Amino acid sequence: MGGSVSCCISPGESPKIHRREVELEECPITTTEDVSEDTGTYLQHISDRELPDELAQESNPSDHPRASTLFLNKSQTDVREKRKSNYLNHMSPGQLTKKYSSCSTIFIDDSTVSQPNLKSTIKCVALAMYYHIKNRDSNRTLDIFDEKKHPLTRDKVPDDYSVVDPEHKLIYRFIRTLFSSAQLTAECAIVTLVYLERLLTYAEMDICPCNWKRIVLGAILLASKVWDDQAVWNVDYCQILKDITVEDMNEMERHFLELLQFNINVPASVYAKYYFDLRSLADENNLSFPLEPLSNQRAQKLEAISRLCEDRYKDLSKSCMRRSVSVDNMVGIKSSHAVLS
Question: 68, 130, 252, 260: least surrounded by Cβ within 10 Å?
């Protein structure tokens, strides 16, 4: 699935700002008066100081594969309203444009978890960011991401730049321009969304009209360096965005990493969760992936891949069987020696 992302500087669960308060409430410090003289000084075990798994998963969806993604939760409000409106007005969801397979023809898209469709993936990522902005809880932000204090262009920033929410098409065009000019992959778009939600969770901030461009740019900048084998340098983005300086890019990247606690690790399970949640988001918003009839050449290719995976599974099963047999033999030999002795 592209370049390896196992070069994590700070693996494991991410610390939250309010973590210390939760620890103090749930795990009170024991004084020396409560400890008997025989036991000595009481040291709290590390497992007693860790947050419960349920709370950690709820706080950090970009770190845990079982936690629901933020963008999918924020989109449910609009999806329910659309369904309710269609039901009350007795309206159909619209003309059925999705193709369905039949006995003679099988339709299949060209997007997989290891090789997603670039255009469709960017559309879904832009839609996820659109719901983040539209259904945000507040307008918490930082100066480093404020577009008026750090403009991306020399054009005058509108007075209502922090009030008007951007449309889905505007977000899509901004991301598509960067990906097309830097020749980034679809996997990088998914990692960009992971870093964006991780930033919002760690820094306890919101993506809003005044900061969305710089936050997206910082996430793309970091994802391209971590994911792609041939990373895009900061000076290359200055060629795409003509009016931004290298010093500004470096400062934004440094702040982005510090806010992420230098946790740039994206496990395969988290990546797969975001991929399938993006597909669910596309289905709920009639943003279907392109379907094509299954041709003979494509069928043969899929069959070859299936056979290859099946052969690898058989080899793995055989190796595991040999290990178990050897362990049984060792146990049998030890038992016989014990009887003879």
Answer: 68
SS3 state at 293: strand
CA 24 to mean position of chain CA atoms = 31
CB 73 within 8 A of CB 201: no
Residues 69-128 have pLDDT tens digits of 999 988 887 767 766 666 566 655 555 556 666 776 777 766 778 888 899 999 999 999
227: which 2 tokens? 């994911």
Distance CA 324, CA 319 (A): 9
CB 270 within 8 A of CB 6: no
Q: How far apart are CA 207 and CA 130, in angstroms?
A: 9
The rounded distance, in Å, linking the Cα atoms of 132 and 74 is 7
What pLDDT is stored for residue 331 in this prediction? 47
Question: What distance in Å separates the CA atoms of residue 317 and residue 308, rounded to the nearest whole number?
Answer: 14
Determine whether 127 is exposed, middle or buried from the number of CB atoms within 10 Å of its CB (0-12, 13-18, 19+): buried
Separation of CA 327 from chain center: 41
Phi-psi region of 207 (alpha: psi -120 to 50; beta: other; left: phi over 0): beta
Sign, Cα dihedral of 189, 128, 79, 89: negative
Whether residue 197 contacts residue 61, with contact meaning beta carbons closer than 8 Å, is answered with: yes
Amino acid at 119: K
Residues 251, 143: Cα–Cα separation, whole Å? 12
Q: To which residue do tokens 């597909």 refer?
A: 279
Strands 291-293 and 107-109, how do they pair? Answer: antiparallel
C-beta separation of 40 from 33 below 8 A: no
The tokens describing 139, both together, are 């307008």
Q: Distance between terminal CA atoms of the chain?
A: 56
**Dihedral sign, Cα of residue 55, residue 59, residue 60, residue 66:** positive
Helix (H, G, I), strand (E, B), or coil: what is residue 292?
strand
Confidence label for 39 from pLDDT (cuts 50, 70 and 90): very low
3 three-state secondary structure:
coil
